[in-house]
Specification:
- The structure is a homodimer of 332-residue chains.
- The first copy, chain A, has 332 residues and is of the alpha/beta class.
- Chain A folds into three domains: 6-49, lambda repressor-like DNA-binding domains (434 Repressor (Amino-terminal Domain)), CATH 1.10.260; 60-160 and 291-317, 3-Layer(aba) Sandwich (Rossmann fold); 162-289, Response regulator (Rossmann fold, 3-Layer(aba) Sandwich).
- Chain A is 44% helix and 16% strand.
- Chain A contains 13 helices and twelve strands.
- The first copy, chain A, has a six-stranded parallel β-sheet, sandwiched between helices.
- In chain A, strand 6, helix 10 and strand 7 form a beta-alpha-beta unit.
- The termini of chain A are far apart.
- At the A-B interface, helix 4, helix 5, strand 2, helix 7 and helix 11 of A face helix 4, helix 5, strand 2, helix 7 and helix 11 of B.
- The first copy, chain A, binds a DNA duplex (30 and 30 nucleotides) through residues 5-7, 15-19, 21-22, 25, 29-31, 34, 49-59.
- Chains A, B: It comes from Streptomyces swartbergensis.
DNA sequence: GACAGGTTCTGGAACGGTCCAAAAAGGGGC
DNA sequence: GCCCCTTTTTGGACCGTTCCAGAACCTGTC
């Protein structure tokens, strides 16, 4: 009653197990009638290869582990899509693990993937334990996707170009005629990069002294509170650039509650082009992070390293695009 | 340079591989000093057990496959959380596979999980190919979670109680004083159940002739259009119960665009308690599906079947709760 | 000091594949 | 029909574990 093995197939087809193995791996060194017999037997028995046995013998799993940092953030879905398309073409499976779900259990979230001996690892989002990753990278290709962090040697990195994205936003606002522009900053490497680029762009346009930065916590609540502070100032900004969409939604609520109309009285911009920003009720102007391209590039890096292991860690920044929707307009 | 095996550990500790195996599986039939030596050797070598070898030998993987139907719908995250907490306590790993991502590749999305010989399968959301599932269910425990569908024999089923949820909403609205109530219906088993229950509840309160049903497509756009139609009627309803949150957001936009204030002029209710409904800018009254409880119960069913395989498929409906927020009030 | 009975430890056979060296079969040419 | 060469097929070792039967080692008793 156990699943059929290659030996069951061999017996039914009247050949040796080695020949079955040969056929199933697509060898052309097999006479057509035998091949047919084997394939028929396999079909009739409903044979499925045992991945464990195969990877034990082959010393590889043809599987790439994807370590997600938090399933609740849906921005990675496009990334996965891009990643999968290329990896699958290369004959590789992907296996998902959610760091957040496994963290509470105390162990390193990558452990299950490592025990499975995945051939490579894609870490999506912020790193779990950077130290542990270094040891892993010595054993298999590792790519960090969708985040900008200091990374152990030999680890590739792919992410959206936050500097360019923040510049696109800032120049869009300046181009519309805004001068007094606020930024709701976030934390971490990403928050840092976006803020810096906002400030640099303002400076480049001679608006350094009109730039305001309020620090939030990348939540709706934080965006709301920071915006209330901002818009209550006597010299209130005419535009607010939020570090992400969710913060931007908070800003939107604040503006509305203060009786300001968006985008008539104040423009707001988000970042990430999440599904929230696409709700017609919000319709946020935002930045698309080119998640698909990030995923594809991560796959490319991984495949490259399978062919030529070792070498320096590379970095690729995907070009983001501005999604102009309903929350930005000329001032007044 | 290959990862250390149990034999490397044995050699370093000066014992046999069998003893190492014994120690690592936590046997108490081992003298403390040997145990110490083995553990030290394992630690020093950075030994990690090879999951493939282990599952080949043990004939089980201690792993449960979770087949997600679409990663883009975040409603399953809580379910996973509940599932994981119990499974992990039972010494089981979970492995995620996204049906939508793998579908394009042509093969059955469950295949990778089956090749890995997972010990059980949780299908989250709508079924992939119901036929294929039947064959799978003969080999391993299968639970369908978070969806209501006809299911092959021997498959357990856990989901939120849609009838009860729809009744909670309808009675909440009636209790507030609403009489002319509309329902924006969806499709599929879930859409059907919610609509039926809405109608039944209205009937039970003698309001059968005040109930209106518009059919949407479970998207924001569909909700928007259906609501425009509804609210332009001369006898416009004072409350709208949408089949899900996203449809409800569409309804909100429509109301706003028609110059109606929510909840003053019209109440709206969603379903699913998604993160969208919690945005303070929307703050939808909605129904929480008890995802955590659904996940826990699915794990329970699975664990039961590991202990006593076979038997009829069971069904459990988790009790939903009403989340009253800002979009419902007394009429006028 | 031999023996019984328990505790600890070990070698070897699985598990289900892949891969390799060698065996068997086939095909010409004489 | 025999020999040689190529194509096709096969048995067996191996991958890293677990598990089992039995070996080796204690400890206490007579």
């Amino acid at each position: 009653m156990r699943p059929p093995t290659i030996r069951d197939v061999a017996e039914r087809a009247g050949v040796s197990k080695s020949l079955v193995s040969l056929v199933l791996r697509g060898s052309d060194q097999v006479r057509p009638e035998k091949r047919e017999a084997v394939l028929r037997a396999a079909r009739e028995l409903g044979y499925r290869p045992n991945a464990a046995a195969r990877s034990l013998s082959e010393q590889r799993t043809r599987t790439v582990g994807v370590l997600l940092n938090d399933l609740r953030n849906p921005w990675f879905v496009e990334l996965l899509d891009g990643l999968n398309s290329l990896l699958h073409a290369g004959g590789l499976q992907t296996l998902l693990a959610d760091a957040r779900l496994n963290r509470r259990t105390g162990q390193d979230p990558a452990d299950p993937l490592l025990d499975l001996r995945v051939d490579g690892l894609v870490v999506v989002g912020t790193l779990p334990g950077p130290a542990a990753l270094g040891a892993v990278a010595e054993r298999m290709p590792v790519v960090l996707a969708g985040a900008r962090e200091p990374v152990p040697p030999g680890v590739d990195q792919v992410a959206g170009d936050d500097e360019q994205g923040a510049r696109l936003v800032t120049e869009h606002l300046i181009g519309l005629g805004h001068r007094r522009i606020a930024h709701l900053a976030g934390y971490g490497a990403v928050g840092e990069l976006r803020r810096r680029s906002f400030e640099a762009t303002m400076r480049a346009h001679g608006l350094a002294d009109r730039a305001v930065v309020e620090t939030g916590d990348m939540t709706e609540e934080g965006g709301y509170r920071a915006t209330v502070r901002l818009l209550s100032r006597p010299d209130r900004p005419t535009a607010v650039f939020a570090v992400n969409d969710i913060t931007c939604v908070g800003a939107l609520s604040a503006a509305e509650e203060l009786g300001l109309r968006v985008p008539h009285d104040v423009s707001v911009v988000g970042y990430d082009n999440t599904s929230i920003s696409r709700l017609r009720h919000l319709w946020l102007t935002t930045v698309d992070n080119a998640g698909h391209e990030v995923g594809r590039r991560a796959a490319r890096f991984l495949l490259d390293r399978f062919e030529r292991p070792g070498g320096e860690g590379r970095v690729h920044l995907a070009a983001p695009t501005l999604e102009i929707r309903g929350t930005t307009a000329r001032p007044f």
